[in-house]
Design goal:
single chain; about 475 residues; mainly beta; 19-stranded mixed β-sheet; 5-stranded mixed β-sheet; globular
């Protein structure tokens, strides 16, 4: 793992969001709503004040409260998990923190348990999966956690703990200096859970024991005429005992498989007016008995906003390199993936009246080649009153590094050996869709959607089962 022993800062990407207020939008830092692009009813929001009425040990407890969101996990509470919105695919980059992906670079699985909820301001569900709102999202779904950035009016410190079902518990503390031209914030979150005897075939086998630790610090500089400079550092790790692959078969189990995740996320952002530049890296490592995956993503980019007459233009461009050092079932492989993407969206109209939105997006991928997507939408009304909304789109989903680069290996799945392999010839998945929505005063809403999903990645064959771009289907729902 020497390639990751000295991880470094390099140019990273970011999505642009202007700090100035826009008509019909919000001004929360890191929010996909911080612009005038979101249509009424397109995004569901729940705030930290609303969550105070619930016991929130981790992100899973928040997902339970989000309408239209379902999730699964690989084992008991605390295991790696994924989620779906309105029946969309759970694959792809679906989990964002302040607009940036917070996922494992190899599998694209969301890193739910490492989010520093002590600084949470609100949670946003983007039902449309629109790249106009979340350029790092996919054709699946997007949940964005908005974390508070910078200090407050005075020096502040908060501490708290929770204890919930299954003896799941959390400890949280944060501190910030007064809001000024220079302010500093630090936060520490810890989540714990006791093990339980939950395997029938091995009654003495303990599963579900985990301890997750996350430390975050922010530095924000606000010189009066030079814009804003923001530095974010986030270190996280956990240990976990008991997974979906243990025990193997009755009488053949091993007592305790310790799984350890660890990682480091660093981001540097500069913002002035409608221009945003950012740089950063994310390192994620996972170690277990027969599997070690290490992924380092480095990316950089820019976003900008421009208004010409009654038209508003929002655009982004970024590039990313992902480096891996993996060992699975004795097989070593070290793929490298390069990708770039960009897009521009234009919107016009006024809040509460007739509003239009049109966007085009494209990208290049060293394994999945080129891709393109587009969307067009129209809405009328306000979310606080009566509104109508129509969106038609073609949304892409780039296969994960795991789907593209995994060699022919044998692993244990549900207690039985299973051979599978990735494929570098996979195409970008495509979802052609239309949605029609209406709502009244935030109390009543109905959404109808239809999707034609093509080039879906599926497993074909046996020993090994190989991933191919051959799945397709139609999805209708309300």
């Amino acid at each position: 793992m020497k390639v990751f022993a000295y991880s470094f800062f390099a140019l990273l990407a970011a999505l642009a969001s202007s700090s100035s207020a826009m008509p019909g939008g919000f001004t929360e830092e890191g929010s996909v709503l911080a612009d005038s692009l979101a249509f009424p009813g397109e995004v569901f929001v729940i705030t930290s004040d609303q969550l105070k009425d619930y016991t929130i040990n981790g992100v899973e407890d928040i997902l339970d409260l989000l309408p239209g969101v379902t999730y699964w996990r690989r084992g008991p509470a605390g295991s790696p998990a994924g989620f779906s919105v309105d029946g969309r695919s759970w694959k792809g980059i679906t989990f964002l923190v302040n607009g940036h992906p917070f996922t494992d670079p190899y599998s694209d699985l969301p890193l739910l348990r490492f989010a520093t909820l002590s600084r949470l301001k609100q949670v946003e569900v983007v039902y449309s999966g629109s790249l106009s709102l979340a350029p790092y999202g996919s054709s699946g779904c997007v949940v964005n956690l908005v974390m508070e950035e910078g200090g407050r009016e005075g020096p502040m410190a908060e501490a708290g703990f929770t204890n919930g079902r299954g003896n799941r518990r959390s400890r949280r503390i944060w501190f910030s200096t007064p809001r000024s031209s220079v302010d500093v914030t630090a936060a520490y979150d810890e989540y714990l859970q006791d093990a339980s005897e939950s395997v029938v075939s091995e009654p003495d086998y303990l599963v579900g024991q985990y301890d997750t630790r996350s430390f975050m610090t922010d530095l924000r500089l606000l010189p009066y005429s030079a814009g804003e400079l923001f530095l974010h550092l986030h270190r996280f790790e956990d240990t976990y005992r008991g997974t979906m692959n243990s025990p193997l078969l009755p009488g053949y189990s091993f007592s305790g498989e310790d799984v350890r995740y660890s990682g480091f996320d660093a981001r540097l952002r500069y913002r002035k007016g409608g221009l945003t530049l950012s740089a950063g890296q994310m390192l994620v490592e996972m170690k277990r008995n027969s599997v070690t995956t290490s992924g380092l993503s480095i990316d950089g980019g820019a976003g900008w906003r421009l208004q010409v007459g009654g038209l508003e233009f929002v655009s982004f461009a970024d590039a990313r390199r992902s480096l891996f050092e993996n060992r699975i079932s004795g097989e070593y492989f070290n793929p490298c993936i390069d990708e770039a993407r960009g897009g521009v969206t234009t919107a016009w109209g006024k809040a509460g009246g007739l509003r239009w939105r049109f966007g085009i997006f494209a990208g290049l991928h060293s394994e999945a080649d080129a891709w393109a997507g587009a969307e067009a939408g129209v809405s009328r009304g306000r979310e606080s009153g009566f509104y109508q909304r129509l969106i038609v789109a073609r949304r892409p989903r780039i296969p994960s590094a795991e789907e593209l680069t995994q060699p022919d290996i044998e692993t244990m799945v549900d207690g039985a050996p299973f051979r599978s392999a990735g494929s570098g010839s996979l195409d970008t998945e495509c979802s052609d869709e239309a949605s029609l929505g209406a709502g009244l005063a935030g109390r009543l809403a109905i959404d109808l959607f239809a999707r034609r999903e093509r080039r879906m990645v599926v497993l074909v064959g046996d020993s090994p089962a190989v991933r191919v771009s051959g799945g397709e289907g139609d999805v209708f729902g309300t």
